[in-house]
Amino acid sequence: MSAKKYQDKVVLVTGSRRGVGRAIAEHFLVNGATVLGFARQEATIEHPQYHHFMVDVGDPDSVIRGFAALKKVTDSIQIVVNNAAVLTSQYSMIMPPAAAQAMVNVNLMGPFMVSREAAKLMRKRKWGRIINIGSMAASLEPIGDSMYAACKAGLSTLANVMAKEFASMNVTCNTLGINAIESDMLSQLPRDKIEEIISGLPIARFSVSDDILNVIDFYASERSSSITAQTVFLGGVN
Ligand SMILES: NC(=O)c1ccc[n+]([C@@H]2O[C@H](COP(=O)([O-])OP(=O)(O)OC[C@H]3O[C@@H](n4cnc5c(N)ncnc54)[C@H](OP(=O)(O)O)[C@@H]3O)[C@@H](O)[C@H]2O)c1
Asked: What's the domain count of the chain?
């Protein structure tokens, strides 16, 4: 039997219960990885190599407690996918401040905390891949998404600075800006608005899981040791 691509890898995926994060977690499991999942609610994945931790990534203390718990399962992490995020789309003048604050906490502070705690484990083996899930919103800057787009733009900046800090540990940090893919998050948005945005892209279609997994595999590859501080957008967004 041939070796599976990720059989010697431990992968942490945030937001692994639903949508994109679940597809990413299942991809790593199918390919032999041990997967650690962070989400606020109970696990939806049952697999002998899947370990679920109820963590609110928007709460730094919860992230610290999550790492303490996962260290009882493993003392190493090779790959992190910062996928968990929340979205409230609303004109800035009427956006509830608490909703804007939640996006900062979950979408920006979350990846900061998870990346730095994971990097402390990656340092021991001098190998790591940190992959942030960004959004076309960072580039297209749509009305209603001032805070969401700012957080997603900030996510690339976060990765780019960490790329410098972690380079000597052989840890790369990159961002994947996805466009639109069917999920609970997408269903919150007006369909006509999304379809209008997608119809204006060079590749004028919604994404499917494989579009995302293709770039995840590229960033995670052993061969991508010189790919760091990069943001790849799907669909021709730039
Ligand atoms: N879907 C799209 O069209 C689209 C487009 C561009 C970018 N994106 C990005 O793609 C990523 C995945 O989006 P999605 O569409 O799959 O979203 P989703 O369907 O809303 O799923 C979000 C996931 O994140 C978890 N989560 C949310 N808040 C959390 C928190 N505070 N702590 C821990 N886990 C949390 C949720 O689980 P719990 O509720 O159990 O915590 C869930 O598993 C996000 O980064 C999003 O910004 C999506």
From this structure: 1
Rounded to whole angstroms, the Cα distance separating 238 from 224 reads 21
Amino acid at 92: S
CATH number for position 73:
3.40.50.720
Give the mean pLDDT of the chain: 97
Is the CB of 133 inside a 6 Å radius of any atom of ligand 1? yes
- Residue 166 Cα to ligand 1 middle (Å): 26
Report yes or no on 43 lying in a domain: yes
Domain span at residue 216?
Answer: 10-233
Percent of the chain with pLDDT over 90: 99
Does 67 map to a domain?
Answer: yes
Q: What is the token pair recorded at 52?
A: 């679920």
The ligand 1 atom nearest the CA atom of 181: 3
238 occurs within a structural domain: no
Residue 83 CA: which ligand 1 atom is closest?
A: 45
Single pTM value for the model: 0.98
Rounded distance between C-alpha atoms, residue 229 and residue 51, angstroms: 29
Q: Is 12's C-beta closer than 6 angstroms to any atom of ligand 1?
A: no
Asked whether 178 lines ligand 1 (CB < 6 A), one says yes
Sign of the C-alpha dihedral computed for residues 119, 120, 123 and 125 taken in this order: negative
Indicate if the pLDDT at residue 1 is higher than 70: no
